[in-house]
Amino acid sequence: MKSTTLLFVACLLGMQSLFAGGLLTNANQSAQYIRMLSRNASTDLDAVYFNPAGVMEMQNGFHFGFHSQTLYQTRTITTTAPLNNQEFIGELEVPVFPSAFAVYKKDKLAFSLGFGPNAGGGSVVFDEGIPSFEGRIAQMATGYGMLADVFSAASGGQILGVTGYNSDIAFEGQSVFWGFQLGMSTKVNEMVSVYGGVRVLPSVNTYSGTIANIQAITAAGAMPASQYQGMVKPVLDGLIGTLNTTQNNLKTAIGVGALDGDAAIEDPQLLQVLGMLGSDASTYGEAVGVLEATEGQLAQLNNSNLLDQELDTKQKGTGFTPIFGVNISPNDRLNIGAKYEFQTVLKLTNETKVDDTGLFPDKAETRTDIPAILMVGLDYKLTSKLSSSVSFNNYFDKGVNWGRTMSGDERVIEDNLWEVSLGLQYDFSDRFALSAGAMQSTTGVSEQYQSDFSYSNSSNSFAAGLQWKATKQLTLDAGVLYTTYTDEDKAFPTYTETYDKENIAVAIGLQYSLFK
Fold first, then answer.
1. Exposed, middle or buried: residue 26 (CB in 10 Å: 0-12, 13-18, 19+)?
2. In a domain, 1, yes or no
3. Which end of the chain, N or C, is surrounded by fewer C-beta atoms within 10 Å?
């Protein structure tokens, strides 16, 4: 391929999570998460997201926090398809991935605010494109190449077969589903606290790009593919007409008994046509099948769109997520947290300026619901200095319509995605602590769901970091997270694709408290 640049967003019809979490949800919402991975029983400020009922364990007063993450991801797609490239590498870099929390707590009542990108938040750059984009052009080249002898014979040798292709592809997609969370927590008794709240998600997807300068390479050199098709189209039209007439005449003759479908072919003109098609059909019945198949191939090539294409569209919508939480503190050493987020109904409306792809009609609506989530966690102080935490997340992916594959089939989710994580923190002093964590995530998508622009892999993550209480009011958290993914394969009729990812995140967070 001469030059292909694809700025490609994770999924055209429903954005994947950018980093940690479910198929669509970003769970990496704080620096404490990046340094520890298990936060579902948190009683610190990031409990606003992870365990909102747990803010009742904080001191009375105002608490404010701001976190920023820098994210790096590499996506690798390999294919055995006969393309110019067999490996496609996508690079993602997000310099700033912000989240913020605020709590006002007074005795048995607390109000909390949260903010962060709950889905999306970045785009991926594939310098060599992706297989599905290049594959469409490759199919054109293969089709013209396979029928090279037909074109040559029909045009008296003037039209040569296609031996390759060039193209320039540019596609940029960006998506951010911002989450603004508001809620209230209260003490039921000394052990139990509850929370009720809602998250508002103003969501925007933007897509723009072009497919241009497609060239067909022949023995005589490269030429614009549209020019090549312009030369071939009259030949295609003539061949389709001839084949259609011939096969209809044969069908009619066989149908009325004028020809025996199993009889050996003796018609010189029919033998000439079959010879031009490279067929060894020996009976009239076989000839009809060959002619029908060839007519279908020619018609498909005749409809190939090799002109430049442009896309410029934006999808906008707002969703609402009801949230309920409970926190149980039986004693000073044990804390249990649970949160349930209901399914978010999210409808996006296209605002399309240009769409030569036909994928984004203006004013059309697309459902991009976010699955319900159950998050449960347990924190336990093993000693006065060593604390442990265990968390479990279940994303109810099976309850959501994930759209259709490129072939038009509904995407299949076999099981819900789930995660389990373990975190440890050691307090060297009242002001300084180190932490580490690990998480295993198991995807539930089927092989049929996977594609080069939207895939899900099981993974293992490892985290480490520190906490420094500079003063009684000011706390700094910092962490680093690494995720490695299990390769996922998808078998197509004639080739196989393999999907892989690798993540690194670095985060820092500041918390300031005004105690009452």
1. buried
2. no
3. C
CA 128 from centroid of its chain's CA atoms: 18
Q: Which two tokens stand for residue 386?
A: 């060593």
Distance of CA 116 to the CA centre of its chain: 20
Range of the domain at 361: 6-215+310-515
Distance, C-alpha 271 to centroid of its chain = 51
Asked if 453 and 130 count as a contact pair (C-beta separation under 8 A), the reply is: yes
Q: What is the DSSP string of 201-266?
A: EEEEEEEEEEEEEEEEEETTEEEEHHHHHHHHHHHHHHHHHHHHHHHHHHHHHHHTTSS-TTSBP-
Does the residue 289 lie in any domain?
yes
CB 345 within 8 A of CB 366: no
Separation CA 315–CA 233 (nearest Å): 37
Residues 230, 193 within the same domain: no
Instruction: State whether 421 and 503 are in the same domain.
Output: yes
Round to whole Å and give the CA distance between 170 and 309.
Answer: 10
Among 270-274, 321-325, 485-489, the range of highest mean pLDDT = 321-325
- How far from the centroid of its chain's Cα atoms is residue 260's Cα? 55
Residue count of the chain: 516
Question: Are residue 84 and residue 19 in the same domain, yes or no?
Answer: yes
Q: Are 112 and 101 in contact (CB under 8 A)?
A: yes
What is the domain-level CATH number for residue 428?
A: 2.40.160.60
Rounded CA separation 99/117 (Å)? 7
| Residues 278 and 325 placed together within one structural domain of the fold | no
DSSP, collapsed to helix, strand or coil, labels residue 300 as helix
pLDDT greater at residue 133 or residue 413: 413
User: Which residue, 268, 283, 302, sits at the end of a domain?
Assistant: 302
Q: What is the pLDDT of residue 6?
A: 39
Distance in angstroms (rounded) separating the CA atoms of residues 59 and 261: 90
**Each residue's pLDDT tens digit, 238-269:** 888 888 888 888 888 888 888 888 888 888 88
Domain boundary among 267, 302, 337: 302
Looking at the fold, whether 169 and 62 belong to one and the same domain comes out as yes
Contact 336, 328 (CB under 8 A): yes
How many domains does the chain fold into?
Answer: 2
Residue 78 β-bridge partners? 87, 498
- Regarding whether 211 and 100 lie in a shared domain, the answer is yes
